[in-house]
Amino acid sequence: MAAPVLSAEQIEEETRLRETLANIKHVIIVLSGKGGVGKSTVSSNLAEALSMSGFQVGIMDLDITGPNIPKMFHVEDEKLLVENDKLIPVQVPPSLKLMSMAFLLPSKDDAVMWRGPVKMGAVRQFIEDVNWGSLDYLVIDMPPGTGDEALSIVQLIPKADGAVIVTTPQDVALLDSRKSVTFAAQTGIPVIGIVENMSGFVCPHCGETIDIFKSGGGEATAKDIGVQFLGKVPLEPGVVASGDNGMPIVVANPESASAKAFQKIAEKVIKTIENEQKYLEEQRKKAQEKNQ
Ligand SMILES: Nc1ncnc2c1ncn2[C@@H]1O[C@H](COP(=O)(O)OP(=O)(O)OP(=O)(O)O)[C@@H](O)[C@H]1O
């Protein structure tokens, strides 16, 4: 695909975006082919697990259709602070920084109803206007799906290191996860790997695992399309409760099966980004080849 010719205004905007992101070492975007597969749950637990590993971490909620990350950290009623014309992210103890399009809405019950260009202008300005300070990782929760909206938003993020793709074991979600891989390729973003969420239900009474939505498809798909498999997260009632109570399960119940799965996923993400640049480079090359 030929590189688009940018206008002076676009170049200036791009420069502003790069300046805003300059003190952020790594940007991870979290994608899903469809809604409801647990993208926000994975984003918040991944961010928290990275933070628990000692990194400076920010989480940015760009899921403009339903920005629910603040609720998952119980900061939905926080008011935004502005300093030197920049938005200051909300602090989630002990050290996570959080920013969400939800904070721009007059009421948390308001849906985002902006029309296309207005919406993209708002998202762009929003990304430009946050003062994150220095971060090791910024985790970005994207809108679900691989349509024009997600594409336009991803194109606003000039330096994503890679994408984490969330799927469930159902065939339809797996098909959608393939679309996410193609989507990442279109935007030139390497795929860090696939997470299979809601993979088997652990019975709280007997401990037996029941594969309600089947299991293992995410791993098979990852192998089939040559991307890393990051891990399976079981369907656990505690995940819903912790999301509703404003404390991700990795913090609320670190010994649970899903928390342990999230911790392992975070370790793999760290290892890939910090030590496996070769894998990411190969993914990037594959993406470029697909685009030619
Ligand atoms: N592993 C899991 N076990 C149990 N419940 C889960 C799990 N993962 C996610 N959920 C629940 O599924 C619901 C949808 O999750 P979430 O909001 O993270 O999905 P999403 O893909 O971000 O949705 P949307 O596309 O609508 O933004 C939530 O109620 C969440 O608590």
Keywords:
nine-stranded mixed beta sheet, Iron-sulfur cluster carrier protein, binds adenosine-5'-triphosphate, 11 helices, iron-sulfur cluster binding, 292 residues, 21% strand, ATP-binding, globular, alpha/beta, Rossmann fold, P-loop_NTPase, hydrolase
Task: Please describe what this structure looks like.
It is a single chain. This protein has one domain (20-291): 3-Layer(aba) Sandwich (Rossmann fold), CATH 3.40.50.300. Helices cover 42% and strands 21% of the residues. It has 11 helices and 11 strands. It has helices spanning 8-21, 39-52, 69-72, 116-128, 148-154, 171-186, 217-225, 237-245, 249-252, 257-275, 277-291; strands spanning 24-32, 57-61, 81-83, 86-88, 90-92, 96-100, 135-141, 162-167, 191-202, 209-210, 229-235. Residues 32, 35-41, 63, 66, 68, 144, 197-198, 233, 235-236, 239-240, 243, 258 line the site of adenosine-5'-triphosphate. Keywords: ATP-binding, Hydrolase, Iron, Iron-sulfur, Metal-binding, Nucleotide-binding. Belongs to the Mrp/NBP35 ATP-binding proteins family. Homodimer.
**Secondary-structure content class:** alpha/beta
- Rounded Rg: 18 Å
Strand-residue proportion = 15-25%
Gross morphology is globular
Which ligands accompany this protein? adenosine-5'-triphosphate
Helix/strand layout:
Layout: H1 8-21, E1 24-32, H2 39-52, E2 57-61, H3 69-72, E3 81-83, E4 86-88, E5 90-92, E6 96-100, H4 116-128, E7 135-141, H5 148-154, E8 162-167, H6 171-186, E9 191-202, E10 209-210, H7 217-225, E11 229-235, H8 237-245, H9 249-252, H10 257-275, H11 277-291
Parallel strand pairs: 1-7, 1-8, 2-6, 2-7, 8-9, 9-11
Antiparallel strand pairs: 3-4, 5-6, 9-10
This protein binds adenosine-5'-triphosphate (ATP).
Adenosine-5'-triphosphate is lined by residues 32, 35-41, 63, 66, 68, 144, 197-198, 233, 235-236, 239-240, 243, 258.
